[in-house]
Structures are given as C-alpha cells and as structure tokens.
Amino acid sequence: MTDQRIADLERRLRRIEDEREIERMIASYGPLVDAGDADAAADLWAVDGSYDVEGWFMSSRAEVAAMVRSDAHRGLIEAGCCHFLGPAVVTVDGDDAVAVCESVLVTRKGDGFAVWRAGANHFRLRRGDGRWRIVARRTRAFDGGAEARELLSTGLQRSRPDERA
Question: What does UniProt give as the signal peptide span (predicted)?
C-alpha cells in the first residue's frame, strides 16, 4: 500500500467515524429527554448552541436544560411519551457537519398512543474538545407548508455523493 492510499483510507475512516458519532448523538436525544435527564440532553449542545422549534427559541445549553425541566415537558413525560428521531443523513466537512432527520413525538392517549407531532430537523454541528456538539438545531412541523421540506432539502443537498470529498 502506498502512503497516499493509507492516507485516503484514514480520511475515509475518520469521516465514517464522525458520521456514526453524530448519528448516535442525535439518536440519544429522544431517550435523554424522555428520561428527563436535562443535563445530559443539554450537553449535546455547544454552550451557546441554539434550538429553534416553533414558538420556542433556546439560545444556550442552559435554556435547553430548562426546557427539559419545564412543567410542559415534565407533563409530557409523566403522562407517557416517546421522542423519536429517525435515521440522520450526515455530511461532515472537517470540524463542521450538517445533519437532517425526521422526528415524531408519540404521546399516551387513553389505553394507546397517538402521534402528537411530526417534524423535520436540521442540525449544524461542530467538533470541539474532541467531540461533536450541536451548534444549531431547527425543527419545523410537517404542517403542509414549505418550511419543513426546505429544512430537509437544504441538508440533503450537502449530502449528495458528487459534492462529497
């Protein structure tokens, strides 16, 4: 094997490892907020990271933790709910990344469950101190409008193979 081939393999492996780490981080959000673990959920964000979901803009890790501790969120988890973020499509560019996925919030209703919300999620992430963190997350409901679809298409445009290094 040539030095160039080894370097290429190392670069490809690093990208796969980064993608997997980001996918796992995004997938951990639901279990963390459903368990009510505000500090661990907030630790997914950069200190000054933002989370923009209709009607609620959080501009720091502390505000994300406060959301998980809020009466509204506590009411959801005490009644029974499941936040599920589907598989993420991740595009890594050095120490920055973009990811998109769909999500559903399922809540207990009588003896069963109902989908309370379905949304599109667009994440901007950055690696720092040896790990990935969310710099910005924007979530929009699939309400028939264009905004949710645009979040997904914007992130997916960056993931096309012809645009990847």
Answer: none
Give the CATH number for residue 83: 3.10.450.50
Q: Which two tokens stand for residue 72?
A: 């509204």
pTM, to two decimals: 0.91
> Domain range holding 63?
3-163
pLDDT one-digit tens code per residue, 89-135: 999 999 999 999 999 999 999 999 999 999 999 999 999 999 999 99
The whole-angstrom separation of Cα 120 and Cα 118 is 7
Number of independent structural domains in the chain? 1
